[in-house]
Protein backbone atom coordinates (compact mmCIF):
# COMPACT_ATOMS: atom_id res chain seq x y z
CA UNK A 1 0.00 0.00 0.00
CA UNK A 2 1.49 3.42 -0.94
CA UNK A 3 2.24 5.99 1.75
CA UNK A 4 -0.62 8.43 2.32
CA UNK A 5 -0.22 11.89 0.85
CA UNK A 6 0.84 14.67 3.24
CA UNK A 7 -1.61 17.58 3.37
CA UNK A 8 -0.30 21.09 2.75
CA UNK A 9 -2.05 24.42 3.18
CA UNK A 10 -2.20 27.00 0.39
CA UNK A 11 0.99 28.52 1.82
CA UNK A 12 3.83 26.79 3.66
CA UNK A 13 7.40 27.31 4.87
CA UNK A 14 10.01 25.53 2.75
CA UNK A 15 13.75 24.96 3.02
CA UNK A 16 16.18 24.77 0.08
CA UNK A 17 19.24 23.41 1.91
CA UNK A 18 21.52 22.91 -1.12
CA UNK A 19 21.09 26.61 -1.95
CA UNK A 20 21.70 27.74 1.63
CA UNK A 21 18.12 28.94 2.06
CA UNK A 22 17.11 27.96 5.62
CA UNK A 23 13.46 29.00 5.32
CA UNK A 24 11.23 30.74 2.84
CA UNK A 25 7.50 31.35 2.53
CA UNK A 26 6.02 29.59 -0.49
CA UNK A 27 2.65 29.79 -2.17
CA UNK A 28 1.40 26.32 -3.08
CA UNK A 29 0.01 26.55 -6.61
CA UNK A 30 -1.51 23.52 -8.32
CA UNK A 31 -2.29 25.72 -11.33
CA UNK A 32 1.42 26.23 -12.02
CA UNK A 33 3.36 23.36 -13.56
CA UNK A 34 6.82 24.53 -12.48
CA UNK A 35 8.17 26.03 -9.27
CA UNK A 36 9.68 29.51 -9.26
CA UNK A 37 12.13 31.23 -6.92
CA UNK A 38 12.44 35.00 -6.61
CA UNK A 39 15.86 36.42 -7.43
CA UNK A 40 16.83 40.09 -7.35
CA UNK A 41 19.84 39.49 -9.54
CA UNK A 42 21.38 36.58 -11.47
CA UNK A 43 24.59 36.07 -13.43
CA UNK A 44 26.08 33.25 -15.46
CA UNK A 45 29.54 31.77 -15.16
CA UNK A 46 31.37 28.59 -16.00
CA UNK A 47 32.72 26.10 -13.48
CA UNK A 48 34.65 23.05 -14.62
CA UNK A 49 33.49 23.79 -18.17
CA UNK A 50 29.81 23.55 -17.17
CA UNK A 51 27.30 26.44 -17.15
CA UNK A 52 26.40 27.75 -13.68
CA UNK A 53 24.26 30.58 -12.36
CA UNK A 54 24.87 32.79 -9.36
CA UNK A 55 22.00 34.71 -7.83
CA UNK A 56 20.97 36.96 -4.98
CA UNK A 57 17.57 37.08 -3.33
CA UNK A 58 16.11 39.24 -0.61
CA UNK A 59 13.25 38.07 1.58
CA UNK A 60 11.86 38.33 5.09
CA UNK A 61 10.35 41.40 6.71
CA UNK A 62 10.79 44.30 4.31
CA UNK A 63 13.12 42.01 2.32
CA UNK A 64 15.79 42.57 4.96
CA UNK A 65 17.44 39.15 4.59
CA UNK A 66 19.76 38.65 1.64
CA UNK A 67 21.14 35.33 0.41
CA UNK A 68 23.63 34.75 -2.37
CA UNK A 69 23.87 31.28 -3.90
CA UNK A 70 25.09 29.42 -6.98
CA UNK A 71 24.15 26.21 -8.74
CA UNK A 72 24.70 24.37 -12.02
CA UNK A 73 22.20 25.26 -14.73
CA UNK A 74 19.95 22.25 -15.37
CA UNK A 75 17.98 23.71 -18.29
CA UNK A 76 16.76 26.93 -19.85
CA UNK A 77 13.32 27.26 -21.40
CA UNK A 78 10.32 29.45 -22.01
CA UNK A 79 7.79 29.82 -19.18
CA UNK A 80 4.39 31.44 -19.68
CA UNK A 81 3.16 33.28 -16.58
CA UNK A 82 -0.45 33.58 -15.42
CA UNK A 83 -0.80 36.78 -17.47
CA UNK A 84 0.12 34.92 -20.67
CA UNK A 85 3.56 36.52 -21.00
CA UNK A 86 6.45 34.27 -22.00
CA UNK A 87 9.91 34.58 -20.50
CA UNK A 88 13.07 32.49 -20.98
CA UNK A 89 14.16 31.22 -17.54
CA UNK A 90 17.03 29.29 -16.04
CA UNK A 91 16.07 26.04 -14.28
CA UNK A 92 17.99 24.38 -11.42
CA UNK A 93 17.62 21.01 -9.73
CA UNK A 94 17.79 21.28 -5.96
CA UNK A 95 16.52 19.69 -2.76
CA UNK A 96 13.21 20.84 -1.29
CA UNK A 97 12.52 20.14 2.39
CA UNK A 98 8.85 20.46 3.33
CA UNK A 99 6.66 18.80 5.97
CA UNK A 100 9.53 16.60 7.16
CA UNK A 101 10.11 15.24 3.64
CA UNK A 102 12.88 15.88 1.14
CA UNK A 103 12.63 15.66 -2.61
CA UNK A 104 14.74 16.75 -5.57
CA UNK A 105 12.80 19.37 -7.55
CA UNK A 106 13.23 21.58 -10.58
CA UNK A 107 12.93 25.31 -9.93
CA UNK A 108 13.20 28.33 -12.20
CA UNK A 109 14.66 31.72 -11.33
CA UNK A 110 12.65 34.89 -11.93
CA UNK A 111 11.88 38.25 -10.36
CA UNK A 112 8.88 37.75 -8.07
CA UNK A 113 9.51 41.05 -6.26
CA UNK A 114 5.96 42.24 -6.87
CA UNK A 115 4.50 39.01 -5.43
CA UNK A 116 3.65 38.31 -1.78
CA UNK A 117 5.61 35.04 -1.74
CA UNK A 118 9.24 34.71 -2.83
CA UNK A 119 8.61 31.14 -3.95
CA UNK A 120 5.85 29.42 -5.86
CA UNK A 121 5.67 25.64 -5.48
CA UNK A 122 4.16 24.13 -8.64
CA UNK A 123 2.43 20.80 -9.10
CA UNK A 124 5.39 18.84 -10.53
CA UNK A 125 7.21 19.36 -7.20
CA UNK A 126 4.21 18.01 -5.27
CA UNK A 127 3.11 15.05 -7.39
CA UNK A 128 2.89 11.79 -5.48
CA UNK A 129 3.77 13.29 -2.06
CA UNK A 130 1.33 16.05 -1.22
CA UNK A 131 -2.31 16.99 -1.37
CA UNK A 132 -3.62 20.51 -0.75
CA UNK A 133 -6.21 21.86 1.70
CA UNK A 134 -6.93 25.33 0.29
CA UNK A 135 -8.63 26.41 3.53
CA UNK A 136 -5.43 25.89 5.58
CA UNK A 137 -2.11 27.74 5.90
CA UNK A 138 1.29 26.84 7.33
CA UNK A 139 0.21 23.39 8.51
CA UNK A 140 3.81 22.27 9.08
CA UNK A 141 5.10 25.22 11.07
CA UNK A 142 8.02 27.55 10.58
CA UNK A 143 11.52 26.09 10.36
CA UNK A 144 13.78 27.30 13.18
CA UNK A 145 15.76 30.50 12.69
CA UNK A 146 19.26 29.65 11.53
CA UNK A 147 21.98 30.22 14.11
CA UNK A 148 25.39 31.57 13.25
CA UNK A 149 28.62 31.28 15.23
CA UNK A 150 29.52 34.34 17.30
CA UNK A 151 30.99 37.01 15.05
CA UNK A 152 29.40 35.62 11.87
CA UNK A 153 26.86 37.63 9.92
TrEMBL record:
Pfam family, one: Zn_protease
Gene3D superfamilies reported in the protein's UniProt record: Acid Proteases (2.40.70.10)
PANTHER family recorded: ATP-DEPENDENT ZINC PROTEASE DOMAIN-CONTAINING PROTEIN-RELATED, ZN_PROTEASE DOMAIN-CONTAINING PROTEIN
Full protein name: RimK/LysX family protein
Boundaries of every Retropepsin-like aspartic endopeptidase domain copy: 8-142
Transmembrane regions listed in the UniProt entry: none
